[in-house]
Amino acid sequence: MTPKERWLATFAGEKPDRIPTDYWATDEVTARLFAELGCRNIEELYTRLHIDGLIVVDPPRRDEHRAGDPGADLWGLRRRLIGYGAGEYDEFVNHPLAELTTVEELEAYPWPSADDHDYDAFCDMLRAVPAHRMVRSGNFEPFLIYAGLRGLEQALVDLVENQEFVEAALARMFRYYFALAERTFEAGKGRIGVTYIAEDLGGQTSLLMSRAQIRKFLLPNQKTMADLARSHGIHIFYHTDGAVRTVIPDLLDVTGIELLNPIQWRCPGMEREGLVRDFGKRLIFHGAMDNQQTMPFGTPADVRAEVIANIEIFRGARWVCAPCHNLQPVTPTANILALYDTIHAQGAL
Amino acid sequence: MSMIQTLYDAILNGNAKAAKEITQTSLAAGGNPQSLVDDTMIPAMNEVGRRYEANEYFVPELLIAARAMKASLELIRPLLTARGAEPVGRVVIGTVQGDLHDIGKNLVGAMLEGAGFEVIDLGVDVSPEKFIAAAKDRNARLVALSALLTTTMHSMKAVLEKLREAGIRDNVKVMIGGAPVTQKYADEIGADGYSSNANAAVALARKLMAA
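ok -> structure tokens follow
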């Protein structure tokens, strides 16, 4: 099977020839792997490590920055690279909606438009993706952006104190995202396999917000986006970090997710056996290679043992083997090789 | 309903405006500021923490309760200082070098404040030297370190090394927390305690102060 066939079989509930694999890493890790493995591009890396990785392609902005404000992104957010020794992370440094109080002020804010994107360039980019690869297009994670625009704490407080305001902001953002997705899916007809819907609903030990808040503010728009994708024959890749066990039934029944990433199984409630027992018939598990302990600080033997444990635990369910979130520069190359070598050697189905 | 009960409710419901007004009224009527803290604020924040651990409250409810508590405490604190009242303990807190993610640190700081600690918040991306200088200058018994990233958590080790170099390791207790941090890691680097959430951090801080 090709990588794309493996993904399609998995989504169809059929048995692929082997457990599919995916790859998430920071740019520093990818550059290091290129250098150490003598790869010139991501296709060579995926071929070398037998990775079925999704290829992310989205319509580029005609102008990467907003008019008259070259330092800001499409939302008006500014980012700054923060060094931590082994690498750098892009962090929000302004919160342009922090001082706003009324829905009228929100409406007056210069929101991005689906017209700002170049769909011809998108089609060219799609044509450049090798036919054996599965394409992921579309990215819906509005509360993450809202938290950047308001500041994380204020964004969470808004769920209790400024409900009309947060609803209006999310509705305004949704208008942009929905129009963008409609045009993206239309332009990429027949080439897009998966779309990405996400929101970080969980912390390390519990949900960040209540189920009621998630249901009220986030799930209805997620469902509409998922329905749009489904009407184009596009599958749903859903990402939420953390301990989210209690909200999985809502994600299945309301949003209608098919795949859940990243399965942080060390978090309470996220034990793999229980997830397989309760949701294994309806859900594809994506990730489950622990990225807080095993991948960065374990030995290659620990990584191999975790791959083998996952193969056993997810036997009978559907699993895509991948790290839980981006591999970080503290992760030794030997551990990354242990992951992909082991799943290649042991992952035949 | 008594004044005490309503301040308790105002904090529990995260009503900062009411908390401030009730505190003003109570103090104007000659209420004892120390007993407002001991008999109302601390029990209210204990209950907030209990509800958080029981998954009845989530981060939004914790944040608004902390804000209501602070609105009241801002009025009370100058009076306590004037009386020469000592806090339960002094804590220097911050996210470690390279880490800007501060919501966990802020929640721990607020819960400690709500438990009667004096919290010296150094903010984010704090160098080991700054932690050491603040612990020395403010005569803090506790240093609380937070990290969200696997790439930044190792700055915690650097803080402990600098405390040893500065010769004040035995004067302070170090507690650590954050998503990738574990008890095992605390043991490895020689920290005095680890907590997985803001409520447990208060219990840990009390235990360390008593040790």
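Residues 59-82 of chain B form the longest helix (24 residues).
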